[in-house]
Amino acid sequence: MLNEFKDFIAKGNVMDMAVGIIIGAAFTAIVSSLVADLINPIIGLVIGGIDFSNMYIVLSGDVPEGASLEAARESGAAVFAIGSFIMAIINFLIIAFVVFMLVRYVNKVKAAAEKPEEVAPEVDSGPSELDVLLEIRDSLAKK
Question: Domains in the chain: how many in total?
Answer without folding.
Answer: 1
